[in-house]
Amino acid sequence: MSRASSATAEAFQALHAAGLLILPNAWDAGSARLVESLGAKAVATSSAAVAWAHGYPDGNFLPLARLVATTAAIARVLRVPLSVDIEGGYSDDPAAVGEVVARVIDAGAAGINLEDGAGDPALLCAKIAAARAAAARVGVALFINARTDVYLRGMGPAEARVEATLARAARYQGAGADGIFVPGVVTAHDIAALVAGLGLPLNVMARPQLPPAAQLEALGVRRLSAGAAMAEVVYGKVAALAGAFLRDGVSAAVLEGAMDYGAINALMPKD
User: Starting at the edge strand that comes first in sequence, how are the strands of the sheet with 111-115 ordered?
Assistant: First the structure.
């Protein structure tokens, strides 16, 4: 394992200062290296995709050892900063969440996502504070992206969600968050209102109804994440290919659209 350097963490912080950081989320070392090779300025994991890759459901079920090992495996192949989605921190004990954060920093994470889900915002505040303290102890300016699920879970009436999100975001900022992730928001009106009311960079998640990247940047969004979308597409493709192969046994169909073996092999570092 290689602890994220202070310089790497600071570089990741700087990527949120201007423009739009686009993150096609990865789930293992191979997918992360591929994303980096295509020009990504940073790589972020999807908690759902990482859990599925290990045969677990999303929702804080992934064993911590698997999360740490995956973080270390991805960090090994990257030269750009890595942000790790740690869901709700795999515990409701803030001290335990601080230990999780220390371990992923030690494995190479320069940033994390930490979510409130359906829980009390006060609990996420305590977890953020514990995460900030853990990062301070090792001298890493960890980017803490606080995710609030007001939109994703449809909490309260639609017309009240901007205000509810801003109220939570203010508390998370006070606890030490560096950014606010609002998956599920899609309208330009609400996005503009969030940007205007936030004191931190806004992260949104890919959805069919979401405005295009250029418009998001003009609205002031600083980070656009694919979330689990690419993994979902990959699983859909594998299901279609494997189903057809099992049914028909036609080899040509299995190879259609394949990336070249040699090109994939050449991407992977030998050490």
Answer: 21-23, 223-225, 202-205, 179-181, 143-147, 111-115, 82-85, 43-44
